[in-house]
Write a structure and sequence with these properties.
By secondary structure, the chain is an alpha+beta fold. The protein is built from three helices and six strands; from the N terminus they run ααββαββββ.
């Protein structure tokens, strides 16, 4: 984890979403920036759990079960949500409390059906600028096979004080 957030006081159990943020693997140094909505309801519904949280690499898992479409395979929208969640969190890490990310473009290519178990998403930066970021997100199954590849561009809006 980067030092970008260590200057901010941690909220610990006083944070209104402390239990939720802990459950989803969000480091306490990010909690002050998630004070209004926590990780959001969709992250909870999809059971996304962060496993690595660094400006150069954000990873998370999501179960296939409960996130399937009518044919019983991983729903493409669930994969896109996983990708956008990681890309937005990575952009927020880059913004380090001085800018809020707003997604302006998301694309995803589905390569293989997710059928069971967990999928793992790995988000890495392509471009980290002052006013925008671009990240690639690779989603793989438990055998390490690529299920989907996504790219997200976020605009960084200055935090209003």
């Amino acid at each position: 984890m980067s030092d970008n957030f260590t200057s901010q006081p941690t909220q610990s159990s006083a944070h209104p979403f402390a239990e939720q943020l802990s459950h989803h693997g969000i480091p306490e140094t990010m909690w002050p920036y998630l004070h209004l909505n926590g990780v959001g309801e969709l992250v909870e519904k999809l059971e996304i759990i962060f496993t690595e949280f660094d400006p150069q690499r954000v990873t998370a898992t999501m179960p296939v079960a409960g996130n399937t479409q009518v044919y019983g395979i991983l729903h493409g929208g669930a994969s896109a949500t996983l990708a956008e969640t990681l890309g937005s969190m990575a952009a927020a890490l880059h913004g380090a409390g001085r800018a809020n990310p707003v997604g302006v473009d998301l694309n995803i290519t589905h390569h293989k059906a997710g059928r069971s178990g967990l999928v793992t998403a790995v988000c890495t930066p392509i471009h980290l600028g002052r006013s925008s970021t671009c990240h690639e997100i690779v989603i793989s199954n438990e055998l390490g096979q690529r299920v989907a590849t996504s790219r997200i561009t976020n605009m960084l809006l200055p935090v209003e004080k």
